[in-house]
Amino acid sequence: MSSLSRELVFLILQFLEEEKFKESVHKLEQESGFYFNMKYFEEKVHAGEWDEVEKYLSGFTKVDDNRYSMKIFFEIRKQKYLEALDRQDKAKAVEILVNDLKVFSTFNEDLYKEITQLLTLSNFRENEQLSKYGDTKTARSIMLIELKKLIEANPLFREKLVFPTLKSSRLRTLINQSLNWQHQLCKNPRPNPDIKTLFNDHTCSPPNGALASTPVNLPTAAVAKPAVYTSLGAHGPFPPTAAAANANALAGWMVNAAASSSVQAAVVTASSLPVPPNQVSILKRPMTPPATLGMLDYQNADHEQLMKRLRPAQSVEEVTYPTVRQQASWSLDDLPRTVAFTLHQGSGVTSMDFHPSHQTLLLVGCNSGEITLWEAGIREKLCSKPFKIWDMQTCTLTFQASAAKEVPFSVSRVTWSPDGTFCGAAFSKHLVHLYAYAGPNDLRHHLEIDAHSGGVNDIAFAHPNKQLCVVTCGDDKLIKVWDMTGRKLFNFEGHESPVYSICPHQKENIQFIFSTAVDGKIKAWLYDNMGSRVDYDAPGLWCTTMLYSADGSRLFSCGNSKDGDAHLVEWNESEGAIKRTYTGFRKKCTGVLQFDTTQNHFLAVGEDYQIKFWDMDNVNVLKTIDCDGGIPSLPRLRFNKEGNLLAVTTADKGIKILANANGMRSLRAVEAPPFEALRSPLEAAAIKASGSSVPNVAPKVERSSPVRPSPILNGVDSMARSMEKPRALDDVNDKTKPWQLTEIMDPAHCRMVTMPDSADAANKVARLLYTNSGVGILALGSNGTQKLWKWVRNEQNPSGKATASVVPQHWQPNSGLVMTNDISGVNLEEAVPCIALSKNDSYVMSAAGGKVSLFNMMTFKVMTTFMPPPPASTFLAFHPQDNNIIAIGMEDSTIHIYNVRVDEVKSKLKGHQKRITGLAFSTTLNILVSSGGDAQLCIWSIDTWEKRKTVPIQLPAGKAPTGDTRVQFHSDQVRLLVAHETQLAIYDASKMERIRQWVPQDALSAPISCASYSCNSQLVFASFFDGNVGVFDADTLRLRCRVAPTAYLSQSAINGSQAVSPVVVAAHPQEANQFAVGLTDGSVKVIEPTESDGKWGVSPPADNGLLNGRTGSSSTANNHAAEQVQR
């Protein structure tokens, strides 16, 4: 419908309202879908006219349109169901359950079952979550508050909640104006024309010639007319203007280009009905306004929060509400315009990218095929990777024939993954190389892909289904998506020319890829193999690159025509049209333009031997600089993520680093003296002697070769060439003074809280978990009993998250139930308790030598039991992609892959010699890693459950392969933490090669009882049997802080007949410096740094091995020699 037709509908709505055609007004509102009358909606909800409520909503949304819509319908139907139960109308309640609520069982069957169970209660208020349900009127009012917030946040209601401002009787006025115009055209206009119909054009023919025209007025009806149609724009703190900025604006392109877009049924974020990642798409209605794009929704739901929604007084915390973007003040000084120095690359630079978190770390690709990693702060190459085909035999025959020719390989593009743990390079022939970045000087081969026939023109990382993937495009006109093992997930066909660039992006739960081809075509793709959703022409019809602003709210493209005309534009995502065209280019340019965005405010383009800057909101050039000369006509450029540094290529195969004031400070911080200490004496001497800032990097390249990794023992590299990257500016500043191990000896030097009712000397803590939401702690005792503590949201603790500053509640349901495992016939001294928590905190699964029990976390009821011994279960893990699949490690050394839904063991894995002590899944590598009492690690394919490899952990000489071995994946899903009483070790799980090791020594010489990564995988917390807790740098396994038992235990606990020590340690899921320990006396303590410190010590420098006056153990030359290490 055209814009004028839409406005006509509003005029008719105003007319109907003024004429009091009430039913017609709301019918037209619903059928047109242009205006949602919140006042009318409120009236119907208060009246409980549920059929009319849903009928009216149906004109604007359907239950499965998006997560907001789903939650709106769920709230309404839930209220209708509860009211039927309150009236004791069980027949009506059953009807609602079957006809209205059944649809939600597709997304959460357990919730549906729980709702169904309310039928068995004489009063549903007996349910813990509904105990505070009041009368019907109050419940409807409370629900309506939430519905209004959901509607205002729902992108489908964008621009539909405010009626346009119109003068009263606007339609009558327009008709009068039309009649006046018709009367003006009359050949013989009468002074007082009599208008009797609007069905025909007006004419009048007086007998005595023409007279002066008189304005015509349509007769006015006798009905009183309100001055202004009711405006319902703002209800509470979520105005429609905020909702209008919602992330789904791109839908206009998609809907216009392909009316039948494929849409994933969306769900309520973080609170409700979890949709499986492979949920079948449904067909979107073509009339859907430009606010819902058919992109896959990969949000995980939080079932605990959903069940809380059964409480009538709950706020809508589960849904993310859009906020108005604030414009920050800026000045020209924010632009990095000052040349700080020049890096001499030695080859022509084709692509650059700064690390996402280490702002001075620059990845460079060259026309020689070389990849280089620079630390710009010290102007030094950390490592360099000359082009080499890693494994010719795995490449296609076409590529092998092409590679035999002497045409050199050039780098098309280099890029970092969003978390900086991987980087990728696309080459001018077929190949993509992926590297794992494990620290300075450590760029290790990860994967080589023969990706495209011809050149690979672009590469980017994306996260479909929250799985890190690589997107590539090439001369073969294809876009491909690969997982991190090299498996091809998607193959997008549709371009008719080589694909030049790609731009993966995510807006809210919608994930898509823009692509541009050398014929100037722009297309957009969903991760669904359903073809392109967009087909538009880029300005210039040639090579174009697309980029979003840092906050993802604005889309830009830059390119030029074959004739050399440059085009820099901003796009209107809602309409697929150009919103703004920037000016200031020279008339013609040869080659392809490069551009970048920064600080959500500036654009920069390299053109005409200059760098030109624009304010995003102004089409005219803001500033032009020549970088003190020496740059090519079309320089390549790249901002760092903070926008305080800009790398620009030079004509003599170098890179100029430009900075603003903040950038200069960050460069000086990295240049500080502590970094000189990081170089070996020989390197430092060579640099000073030659006066050059480019040391010989050949030894570093050799050392970081993945063919023969050098394991690092106790964080000290025997070759003494590694440079520790600064974690943060405060770490850098701390390094200006000699490093010293932080030792927490006194309770005043940290924050600590003991869980109430936790101490029980006869029931030591065997397993300890934080809830995934971070609001509680769950402990499993050696007697099979579980305890749950929760933090309450209040003024002291506004976040409601676990904290050492507030004492939590020992939480139990009103029923008084206790989560106790079946221990009949079990010898508790020999039993191995085990526990696992579902991702949404809905269920906990545990065992203590007997059957495995599945508990409801809200009611503590046992939902089911399974796997009775023998053999007994010793370790439990939920499958990361399906809560119904559980990996169960057994006492007899086998692993059972069990499907709870069908109560069946799908596979039985055999590979260990003793009981299973650890299980860890990696979705990136598609593997399950198991550890056992035999000190062996086994790797299993998740797809086939076949064993891929067995690796023994390297024990000290003479040490028998006994004791528990635990495993946990780093957040990158590649590095693996292995903890044994004799050591901590980091493995590269893609090859199962050990890359770091630490053995107990000095103040931490006791055996290790447990270890865990922090939530961001930057730290490792390790507990020891003598009561100490060590905090290690996760990359290097260097000890940065020791928490002594005197800091958190009383003297009686330390000196008693049975000394108390930590058995288990757990890391908070969101607070990187918070951990909890479970002790042998049954107590649980949460420990954090003081608020003034905010962290556990400082990262130790990678010096000559002297740590706080003590000599660290040196690493051995290879993995086998490490077996000789003595504890």
Describe the structure.
There is one protein chain. The chain is an alpha+beta fold. The chain has 18 helices and 63 strands. The strands form 16 sheets. The protein has a 5-stranded mixed beta sheet with strand order 31-54-53-52-51, with no helix packed on it. The protein has a 5-stranded mixed beta sheet with strand order 32-58-57-56-55, with no helix packed on it. Helix 3 packs antiparallel against helix 4 (50-57) and helix 5 runs antiparallel to helix 6 (90-105). The relative contact order is 0.07. InterPro entries: CTLH_C, LisH, Topless_fam, Topless_Znf, TPL_SMU1_LisH-like, TPR1-like_2nd, WD40/YVTN_repeat-like_dom_sf, WD40_repeat_CS. This is CTLH domain-containing protein. Residues 1110-1127 have a biased composition (Polar residues).
Task: Summarize this structure briefly.
With 1127 residues, this protein is an alpha+beta fold. It is globular and about 120 Å long.
Helices, by number, come to: 18
Classify the secondary structure makeup into a structural class: alpha+beta
| Global morphology | globular
> How much is the average pLDDT?
79
Strand-residue proportion: 25-35%
What integer value in Å does the Rg equal?
34 Å
Give the spatial strand order of the biggest sheet: 31-54-53-52-51
First-last Cα distance:
78 Å
Let me know the number of strands: 63
Residues in helix, %: 10-25%
Largest sheet: 5 strands, mixed
